[in-house]
Design a protein that fits this description.
- The chain contains 6 helices and 10 strands.
- It has helices spanning 15-24, 53-69, 86-94, 138-150, 166-173, 188-196, and strands at residues 2-10, 29-34, 41-48, 80-85, 100-102, 106-110, 122-126, 156-160, 178-182, 201-203.
- Helix 5 (166-173) links the parallel strand 8 (156-160) and strand 9 (178-182).
- The longest helix has 17 residues, at 53-69.
Length: 206
């Protein structure tokens, strides 16, 4: 399957805003990556291949210009687009995906990495494919940190725009009983089902 990749040079200061803007423009997946030979930060938006690349580039240029006018740190590098297949997309972010620890409570690790858990941590393994949500985005980490810190007092949780379901599944793993997760993107269901399979989460003994 072919996809349109839009590469936007950004600063960490505007990462969340640009992720949201790419999603508004129709991105199926968005992830951040550092080029190996550069200190620059880039945002990768994955769009259906038939998307209007010129329109997306122009709208992102206008958005970045408005952020620059507001005083934010905005790169002057050009926005680029290219055609990629799904295997290429998956290979790109797998090379840079590292486990994420939340205190001594939870670790999220990809299926191709093992034994990163510390004693007592719940382990959530993911292989989200094209669904957005790997745990590396700031807002996802903020929500997961909050769930970890308040898990004993949370009775129920609603996860709107659940993506790969990572927040909801982590909440369930941490003992929260009533959870409602929803998303308008049909591509999230295979990812959620995969994570929910019995081999995808466990707990490391102290």
């Amino acid at each position: 399957m072919k996809w349109l990749q839009v590469v936007v040079p950004i600063s960490s200061q505007i990462e969340d805003a640009c992720v949201n803007r790419l999603q508004e423009l129709g991105a199926t997946a968005v992830y951040t990556n550092f080029l190996i030979d550069s200190s620059s930060l880039f945002l990768y938006g994955i769009f259906p291949y038939e998307s209007d690349r010129k329109k997306i580039k122009n709208k992102m240029r206008m958005y970045l210009s408005s952020l620059r006018d507001l005083g934010f740190d905005v790169s002057l590098e050009e926005i680029k687009t290219k055609k990629i297949n799904e295997d290429e997309y998956l290979h790109q972010w797998k090379d840079h995906f590292q486990p994420i620890h939340f205190g001594n409570t939870l670790v999220i690790e990809p299926v191709w990495i093992s034994d990163s858990a510390r004693p007592g941590e719940k382990v959530l393994k993911i292989d989200p494919g094209m669904a957005f949500g790997t745990g590396h985005h700031f807002t996802t980490q903020f929500c997961l940190q909050w769930v970890c810190q308040n898990r004993e007092s949370i009775n129920s949780l609603i996860d709107v725009g659940c993506g790969s379901g990572i927040i909801s599944i982590a909440a369930s793993l941490l003992g929260i009983k009533k959870i409602l997760a929803m998303d308008h993107d049909s591509m999230v269901m295979p990812a959620v089902k995969k994570i929910l399979s019995g081999t995808m989460f466990k707990e490391k003994s102290p």
